[in-house]
Amino acid sequence: MFTVAESSVLSPDVRLLSLVLAVCLAVVHLFSGKLRFLDKIPRSRWLSIASGVSVAYVFIHILPELSKAQETIQGIVGDGLAFLEHHVYLVALLGIAVFYGLERAAKLSRQRNQKAGRGDSTEARVFWLHICSFALYNALIGYLLLHREEPGIPSLWFFFFAMALHFIVNDNGLREHHKESYDRIGRWILAAAIIMGWAIGQGGEIHQAAIAVLFAFLAGGVILNVLKEELPEERQSRFWAFSLGAAIYAALLVSL
User: Fold this and answer.
1) Does a structural domain hold residue 15?
2) Torsion 137-143-146-148 (CA) sign
3) Residue 37 domain flag
4) Which of 146, 162, 217, 224 could form an S-S bond across to 201 if both were Cys, CB 3.0 to 4.6 Å?
5) What is the mean pLDDT of the chain?
6) In this structure, are residues 179 and 52 in contact, taking their beta carbons and an 8 Å threshold?
7) How many folded domains does the chain comprise?
8) Could you give the count of Cα atoms lying within 13 Å of 32 in the half-sphere of its Cβ?
């Protein structure tokens, strides 16, 4: 089990800002569906730009932090986490595998419903599996608003902006799979999960080793959730927009 470490000292201003940004991320889930211009084929250039920003954040910020973490967290935890502290990239791979499995389950469920004449949406059990999994994912992001590998207000703003755009991309995919069930129930659960994750972070901080593991899982999830939206041929995605978003945000992160 992860053990709880003494909470790092965060100023009241940083805590308040992180709460405001957590609420803003929740609002993204609640209102991204109003951006109807995103829901079209060929894929909206804005979604491709958002995807590029999210991937740039993973490769320029999160993955280098994981590399540093493997060098600095040795000896912090006992033998129970010894494997993970040397293999955080396997956790990133796990994140990719988990969200690939969720995406595959949703597609197969839609196909079964279509064949049975029940419409182009997922079955109830797959809907709840998807929403509960993404709720945990969102709670992790809410927690990391307070406790990231790199603290500080600039890092907080970069993390918030990347995750806000990432949520817009995720919402587009979830709404496609679950239709009205997502708008009626799913988006509210995901919005609440962000606030709950922030509240858990406010209550305490886990060891640096565990934060590295959580960041690794998040990295894998972001990579898969972005690429599954950009790569399918039927999306008719815009490579130039994806590249532009990735290049601009990478340049900003490098200059941080």
Assistant:
1) no
2) negative
3) no
4) 146
5) 79
6) no
7) 1
8) 30
* Tens of pLDDT, residues 208-228: 777 777 878 888 888 888 777
- The whole-number pLDDT of residue 2 equals 35
CA distance 222 to 216: 10
Q: Half-sphere exposure of residue 122, counting CA atoms within 13 Å on the CB side?
A: 25
Other C-beta atoms closer than 10 Å to the C-beta of 108 total: 13
Question: CA 26, CA 29: separation in Å to the nearest integer?
Answer: 5
* Number of alpha carbons in the 13 Å side-chain half-sphere of residue 249: 28
pLDDT at 147: 82
Give the C-alpha separation, 26 to 190, whole Å: 7
b/e map of 69-106 (b: 16 or more CB within 10 Å)? bbeebeeebeeebeebbeebeebbbebbebbbebbebb
Tell me how far apart the alpha carbons of residues 135 and 151 are, in angstroms, rounded to a whole number. 24
Q: How far apart are CA 140 and CA 213, in angstroms?
A: 11
Per DSSP, helices labelled H in the chain are 12-31, 45-57, 63-72, 82-86, 88-115, 124-144, 153-178, 180-181, 187-203, 208-230, 239-254
Closest among 78, 32, 45 to 188, alpha carbons compared: 32
Q: Which residues of the chain have pLDDT under 70?
A: 1-9, 35-44, 66, 68-87, 149, 229-237, 256
What residues make up the domain containing 178? 21-31+43-254
4 located within any domain: no
- The whole-model pTM stands at 0.80
Model confidence pLDDT, tens digit, residues 46-70 = 777 887 888 888 888 777 776 766 6
Cα-flanking dihedrals φ and ψ of residue 239, to 5°?
A: -60, -40
